[in-house]
Amino acid sequence: MIKVGDQLPAATLMEYSEVEGNGCSIGPNAVDVKKAAAGKTIALFAVPGAFTPTCSAKHVPGYVEQADALKAAGVDEIWCLAVNDAFVMGAWARDQKTGTKVRMLADGDAVFAKAVGLTLDLNGKGLGLRSNRYSMLVKDGKVATLNVEAPGKFEVSDAATLLAQAKG
Predict the structure, then answer these.
(1) pLDDT, tens digit (0-9, with 9 covering 90-100), for 116-127
(2) Catalytic site residues?
(3) Which residues contact 141 (CB under 8 A, 6 or more apart)?
(4) Looking at the 3D structure of the chain, how many domains does it have?
(5) 28 assigned to some structural domain
(6) In this structure, is residue 6 part of a structural domain?
């Protein structure tokens, strides 16, 4: 499992944009994790799946609500990762009204989740291999803090916890 002090792994995530701009086409766009994190402070959180109850009712809304406070604390971008495809993440972004506050990034093949060692096996429950629920503060591609949830919990990966760590 990835730990504080480790570099983010080389991986490509996908992002669906509603509008064209800054070289982004509307269709799914590849996001090279190492390049996208270089020189930035990223508040990254991962969820088991788009449109799932805790993720939609608490996890994403918390980061949307705290986006300005996180930016004031030095965070350049907020990333939400889930093992879903880019189209689902785009639809979830619309549903959650993330706008430009949270980048909704698809880890469709669980490449990132596997590389950081934070997968969640939900086979037999109709969900397959997913990402564990966690958050991390990433500075210039290096993990500064890591908050991994116990199974079925939502206690340490919330926006308030990461905000406190960003301020610290």
Answers:
(1) 999 988 877 767
(2) 55
(3) 7, 8, 34, 37, 38
(4) 1
(5) yes
(6) no
